[in-house]
């Protein structure tokens, strides 16, 4: 098993499992079309942790994340979100997701506000109109990533790093208890990485659980409370 | 022109299509499925042919054929298998070929003219047709406008939409059904071969000038209604086929907007030669602001 688990330099011990683990993986295998990409994953994430999942390209980091969220298959073992087996889990508004994507520009222009608002849909539902609280949540999310003055700008006019931050804001608009980010710092300049680290620090301070997939922990090191490494087989024994 | 009863009905039908088709088209354009309307038009032809041959209302049989076609298309797409493209080609060309063969082998006395379905026959719209069209248009608009946030979210980023718990497959199937309904509604106005034009081109016009999804939808509908009316009027006075005229007017609108946009851009550059396009500085400026706000 190619796994290492070590607390980061500024680690704080994860809070006791008072409300139960946010994520629990036991011997889990993930893949596509019944072919495993990653197997034997044991991992427990407690509320309030900021966990970095580190590994080289092709190690299966994204497959792991997508397995948690339902877009890759769980082929073996057990995966629980907030104590519920993934297959039965329906409370997706408790989970915020920032996919690994450098851009979100489609054929039809979309403003930053429209993009971020789409992250609030899981709370509002498809038929209901946005209320005061929903607009506020969108404002807060934009402020949280430092894009407060950008809400009317088309996403296509933002830089790559700013587009990433807009994607983070989209996930934050749903007030998630667990935020999962897939390579949010890849290809992003130092300034934008600092903003992102500050955003994550702010979230950690409010008790949001964060799982962030990274090639290298680098700029996020001050925020991360624990790091696990993913090889062809990954897991975590020690928490 | 409006003293003719048939022209009043024709204009009303054209406005319904001009209003409805772009609201569907904008999602198709966003999902880069611009030509799906065209394919469904091919499938509709088989439905029309079966309707003509069995003396059933062709609108009903066409609706059934396109809904079935649209559902198959969406299910194939959701499975993302490698053969999807070819499967769609089989369905689309099978539809048009099947339609032609069925009509050719229809029992004697069948009105064997497919032209009015292929190229539209707006001026043959009856009062009863108009009622059917209006009901269909209401259903389509209820979905495309009522669910616009969800449909845009799915069209923009399907993986994210699924991860945030939206019923992606159901929304896509619903949009597919609504697309099929719009194809059927539009076939008598525009013709099956031209339907896609009024779905996609107004969205293309909106893309040229809009800065938000909401504005794109509004502009696409405005363009759709304007060209539907203009095209119908022009076809009356110029004595040209209405469907093709409407599509040509839409293309003229696109050219006008594209021209206007480049003029505006050129004059902006001329007035502010120092500023030009947004620079890295403009874009990265607020980073500091964000950091301090968080710090």
Keywords:
heterodimer; A: 239 residues; alpha/beta; Rossmann fold; six-stranded mixed sheet; 26% helix; globular; disordered N terminus; disordered C terminus; B: 295 residues; mainly alpha; ABC transporter involved in vitamin B12 uptake, BtuC; 78% helix; 0% strand
Question: In words, what does this structure look like?
Answer:
The complex is a heterodimer of chains A (239) and B (295). Chain A is an alpha/beta fold. Chain A has a domain at 2-7 and 48-62 and 92-231: Rossmann fold (3-Layer(aba) Sandwich), CATH 3.40.50.300. Chain A contains 6 helices and 10 strands, in the order E-E-E-E-H-E-E-E-H-H-H-H-E-H-E-E. In chain A, a hairpin with a 2-residue loop joins strand 2 (23-32) and strand 3. In chain A, helix 4 (132-144) runs antiparallel to helix 5 (160-172). The two termini of chain A are 17 Å apart. Chain B has 295 residues and is an all-alpha fold. Chain B has one domain: ABC transporter involved in vitamin B12 uptake, BtuC (Orthogonal Bundle). Helices cover 78% and strands 0% of the residues of chain B. Chain B contains 14 helices and no strands. At the A-B interface, helix 2, helix 5 and helix 6 of A face helix 1, helix 7, helix 8, helix 10 and helix 11 of B.
The CATH architecture of the domain at 2-7 and 48-62 and 92-231 in chain A is 3-Layer(aba) Sandwich
What is the H level of CATH, i.e. the homologous superfamily of the domain at 2-7 and 48-62 and 92-231 in chain A?
P-loop containing nucleotide triphosphate hydrolases
Round the Cα radius of gyration of chain A to an integer and report it: 17 Å
Helix fraction bin of chain B? over 70%
What name is given to the CATH topology of chain B?
A: ABC transporter involved in vitamin B12 uptake, BtuC
**Top CATH class of chain B:** Mainly Alpha
CATH domain class of the domain at 2-7 and 48-62 and 92-231 in chain A = Alpha Beta
The most extensive contact between chains is: A-B, 55 and 46 residues
In sequence order, what are the helices and strands of chain B, one letter per element? Answer: HHHHHHHHHHHHHH
Shape-level CATH architecture of chain B: Orthogonal Bundle
Figure out the total of helices of chain B. 14
Instruction: Tell how many strands the DSSP assignment of chain A holds.
Output: 10
Q: Please, what is the average pLDDT of chain A?
A: 82
